Amino acid sequence: MHGDWLDIGPKTQIEPGTARTLPVEGGEEIAVFHTMRGEFFALVNACPHKQGPLSQGIVHGDVVTCPLHNWNISLRSGNALGADEGCVPTIPLRVDAGRIYLKRSAVLSPRAVLA
Ligand code: FES
């Protein structure tokens, strides 16, 4: 696969229930999540509350709980859930033949490796 999709590596590099970060030169760090259900999501790695590192949060279902003040953020939409309000940008992601791809146009000048 090529064109507008950026290969960031094999999906096996992210354990289920965890996330890894992707540094972006000149842009905001991206967190790539692997849920216990086997889904993958990519979001800007900054909580909509006070920029907590979502990659270090607890993943449950398709939600991550921010490690700083426990806001729940939908991995699917980037929206804060419950009484909290805010939204973090999501990055289109697809998995093909065991590799993870991010929408290139949604990522500014990325280094093509996970940190
Ligand atoms: S920074 Fe995430 S809940 Fe406060």
From TrEMBL:
Keyword Iron in annotation: yes
Keywords for this protein: 2Fe-2S, Iron, Iron-sulfur, Metal-binding, Nitrate assimilation, Oxidoreductase
Domain of life: Bacteria
One MF term in the entry's GO annotations: 2 iron, 2 sulfur cluster binding
Keyword Aminoacyl-tRNA synthetase: no
EC number(s) reported in the record: 1.7.1.15
A single GO BP: nitrate assimilation
Gene3D superfamilies assigned: Rieske [2Fe-2S] iron-sulphur domain (2.102.10.10)
Enzyme class: oxidoreductase
The name this protein goes by in its record: Nitrite reductase (NADH) small subunit
Organism: Novosphingobium chloroacetimidivorans
